[in-house]
## 1
Amino acid sequence: MPNKINIVQAVQQALQNEMTLDPAVVVYGEDVGVNGGVFRATAGLQKMFGEKRVFDTPLAESAIVGTAVGMAVNGFKPVVEIQFMGFIYPAFNQILSHVARFRNRTRGQRSLPMVIRAPYGGGIRALEHHSESTEALFAHIPGLKVVIPSTPYDAKGLLISAIRDPDPVIFLEPKRIYRAFKQDVPEDAYTLPIGKARVLQEGDDITVVTWGAMVSDVRKAVSQIEDVSAEIIDLRTISPMDRETIVQSVEKTGRILIVHEAAKSFGAGAEIVAVVNEKAFLSLEAPPTRLTGFDTIFPLPRGEKHYIPSPERIRDKIRELAAY
Amino acid sequence: MFIDKFNPLEDDMIQVMDENGNIVNPDFCPDVSDEDILTLYKTMRKARAIDSIALSLQRQGRLLTYASNLGQEAAQVGSGYALKKSDWAVPAFRELGMWLIKGWPVEKIFQYWYGNEWGSHFGEEIRLLPIAVPIASQLQHAVGIGMAARFRGDDDVVMAYSGEGGTSQGDFHEALNFAAVFNTPNVFFIQNNHYAISVPLSRQTASRNIATKALGYGMPGVLVDGNDVFAVLAASREAVQYARESGPVLIEAFTFRMGPHTTSDDPTKYRSDEEVRLWQRKDPIMRLEKYLMKENLMTEDAMKSMTESLEQDVMDAYKSIEHTSDTGIEEIFSYHFENLTPQLKEQLEDYQAFLKGASHAE
């Protein structure tokens, strides 16, 4: 039987699979229980697994994450939802000061097998604080893994890996493409390696690295160019970054464009440029280049179309770099 | 049970033993054997021995920054003594007496303050979390441990610690609110020692006391004399029983930090000698010693020799880690994840290569 599902359904299925297989997995957050999540990512789970394993909490992000630390210490594998990435900041102290540090500060005695899920990114004409992409804030923190899938297949496999990981994972879901397309995905549980990028399309002239919702835009841009052979890499894990795949590709193409939705300065793109400079300097035929959101506050819906790099801008930048 | 009848909006602080070691409130006196009393005393004395040795080592340059517990021994030991072995304790950073009761080895305590992460690796069977420096953040961990216990059906209780300064943090509010909503087996034990570094209690809260805050969350709150080990133990035992059977509860232990915030602090800048002298008369150890002598449980000589022998043990414990605790380079990298990431591996190897070269150059 084919199991054609979109990204948000893939998230739900991953949770359902893992909750069925492992009684230690619990899911909680705001509106995840009775309501099944504002995006339906936890739909039906409370009915299936009961109120002790899927439950709503008071409206307090710091405590959602902080109590997950305690649940993980005491034998559970919490998968907590922060309703929007824009609301994760009250929990930042817990994430930075405790979630990321517990294994190291107890010299391995207490690891925290927990996942913090949050939908991120713009392009859905949302209210203030509902559109930012701040993955770089988390990728900068030692002791955290940061994962961003771009397809239903990857979303399911990577979320299951994140849940089974003995260490904490920040799992960011591209809400702009939650329902953009469906894929045939195995119904049973499967894992994909965290820390491994995927080459979506091979090419010889330029490497384009991207992740999350921007993957679709990059594909569109590349499909509009016939005279340039572009290699597309879906990073999938922001941290720890798969440097090997990027470097190998740049050694072949000599050119790299990084496309991300987040603000430009000090973003994950800057890290990729640094890695390429350190490891593939002599292969370069053009300056490693970023095409990203602006260093501005994400505009409200009347202006957001200007913020996220469009397929047309990506296309032009690829052409520009290929001709350098 | 008296704690759920206690009204922190009206009632006075609960005291069992006064400053002269007299039992003034026998109704509230906990059921303790002579052996229990001697254990309480010995642990309080041991905490003070660790403090006095740590302070002197720090002055000699043999220990780094240290947070003293002087004056708060009854609050720490009395609360910890109410827990059974499988109950959890979640400290802030000034709970030495409780750590000793829960079994954090003295060498490990020193190792932590000496600047080595191995100090916080002390065995799964000791149900104690490591020190938490970010104020009040640990209260949420305690609630999460309590949620886990409740969902699994364990009968373990979680005692969480904070100072009065911590009650100003949002995490305090969120933790107590979660605990009450999920009806977790948590005791929030607030050591009100009157100063958060230099900032006095009056700048932390306009409430009548800290205990009243519990009422707003729908849990009992009780105010005890934190320098009276019997009052602390009685209230803690009831609170633990209440948490096990019914739900969360808050204890405010009214005490005083006799020493500096840490060895980097000079308290004479922000409080008067007179205030300190007032609290010296309420000293929790002196008070218990008066009781012990009155009850013929111990002589002054026996106390003196016990103290000397404890100080010797403590010094031995310190010496056992003094020259053995420098952190290896690999250790710095090896405990961030179950496995080293390629990035960590590369940075480690790069640094090792540099060190190898550097040693050749010497």
## 2
Amino acid sequence: MTAATPPARVGPGRATWVWRRWGVALRFERRSVLVCGTLAAVVALLGVLALGTGSLRLSPAEVLSALFDPDADPRARLVVVTWRLPRLLFAVVCGAALAVSGAIFQSLTKNPLGSPDVIGFASGSYAGASVVMLLLGSADYLAVASGSLTGGTVTALLVYALAHRHGVRPFRLIIVGIAVGAFLSSLTSMLLLSVSPQQAMLVATWGAGSLNGLGFEQLRVAAVVLVVLLICAATVVRPLVQLEMGDDTAVALGVNARRARFAGTLVGVALTALVTAAVGPIAFVALAAPQIARRLTRGATTLRIAPAALTGAAVLVTADFIAQRVDLPVGVVTVCVGGVYLAWLLVRQYRGGRR
Amino acid sequence: MTTTAPPPGALTAEPEPAAPGPRPGAGPARRTRLLILLTAVGLLLVMAVLSVMVGARSLSPGTVWDALFHFDDSDEHVMVRELRVPRTVIGLVTGAALGLSGALIQAFTRNPLADPGVLGVNAGASLAVTFAVAVLGFGAASQFIWFALAGAFGLTVLVYALGSIGADRGTPVKLTLAGVAFTAVCGGLTSAMALKSTTTFDVMRFWGVGSIGGRSLDILPVALPLVGAGIALGLLSAGSLNALALGDDIARSLGTRLAVARVSVVLAVTLLAGTSVAVAGPISFVGLMVPHVVRWFVGPDQRWILPVTTVAAPAFLLAADIVGRVVLPSGELQVGLVTALVGAPVLVVLVRRRKVSSL
């Protein structure tokens, strides 16, 4: 609910850097640039550490030489570039996609608890994958991925269609999404209760989301799709931020409310679909990353692509770094890491007396 | 958030009505609302009677009456006394607790996505129960109650502590975010423990859906006072919740003591939701859905929403439980599954048909 979020500092209150050349002027908020830079550095640093740890330990210097020097030890290059790098890049791609998707949905629903889950995508894809794994008895990566993609897409379309009545209102979207999501979760639970514990656990492990066993073939596709979707996201940001001020104001400013909402939903769902198909429904990044990013940049809206994407990437890379150490699906660690960090941010904010 | 469906033919510019603060006195006429309350009470009575009568072996009202008042050790009488009545009573208590706590938390946070679990109650209980199974080696549902209770209360205290650091303490948004953060951490730890051991996972997948079957009435001496206190505290908060809905400043100028109002609402939600999760496991959807539906019928006045929800929620829970017993010829569906399976379609139809009021 935007009504309860802190008032924005606008205009001259925020320090900016202006870049002018060739008749173009770009304004950057100083704090955002600094935050983004720091987050990128964190991702890079953790990435180097993650690439160096495992059954073959490498120092950061060895990792860097393996990455950039073609004449380095071929064994190190094999481990770092072929085996570990795809997983790291996948964490970056998925984290960024989830965070931007969450930012879009929180803006669309004007609700800090909003996330792609409100449109039922996660529960739909979980149900789809469970059906494939338990009823069709297939654990094949492609089969499960397409099952989850189908389940999620059908659910999202269903929710949007059911919520559509003289246009889609955020409130109705939320309620319908909750209802359909709860319905599907119950069906999935029924399935899980009817099979052996081992089978149920297999499904639950997929449901937590894991980055195991991914290679460059999948990564190439995912990265291209992400870039395309991020460009699409960049075009829907402006009208969506204006819609946060209320439909009347936004329409007066020339926004086509219905089209903007539809485009936003579409991009948000596509971003989630990308992640879910590739690695399963990783929880909480979409929920927490936009909130963390907004608190770091002290911005007025959660819908800022670069900070949100980098925060998501940082959260997921950190979580995966830990997940590999303790041998759990990354989704399990994500909620812990994201939750602790959100809690810490809240504490720090209150101490500082800011809202 | 908008309140009304736009008139047919409105093009793109759908007007957003001014922010809807609950206007006590607005909504249907007093007589209509009284009628709704009485209907809910009637429904509850019908469901309670049905819940004792219907099951794998259906009983006539006469048999039930005899079992209650002229008990004679026959199988049917024992079944009524030992299985059906406890189950119905547990359903009544948990249903009322879930419904009222949901209505309170939605009014308090002014967030339609909020459910009783938002302050961390369910997550705390699940974590404690998982810990009991995975580390301490407990295995029976009846032993989980104390762990669940401790976990639920412990985590809410933590959430409240985190949510009330700083200058303007205990505001709904901060409490919600603190709850979300702690819920996530507990959820992560719970799945981590569950996914490490098949035994734990197996116990937790059954406990985790929530059921009111197979509980004995021994827990009532503990549960009833807690729920009773929660209901009293919750219903008494109706006035201050109405005032809080107008915004903190106006509420204060109307004479509401903000800190007292907030603490009593949080305490009531914790008592109600915590007891309910301890008794029956985390039953989803009741606390989320029933307050919404009730609000659409009685309007935004909390003095009506809270009592009607307290009556309507157990009726819904018992209805779901009856469906769960009847629908499968062999065995039965846990009520935690049926609530969503039955309730979701109803909710979708209602949200599409009625002029819905947001918070």
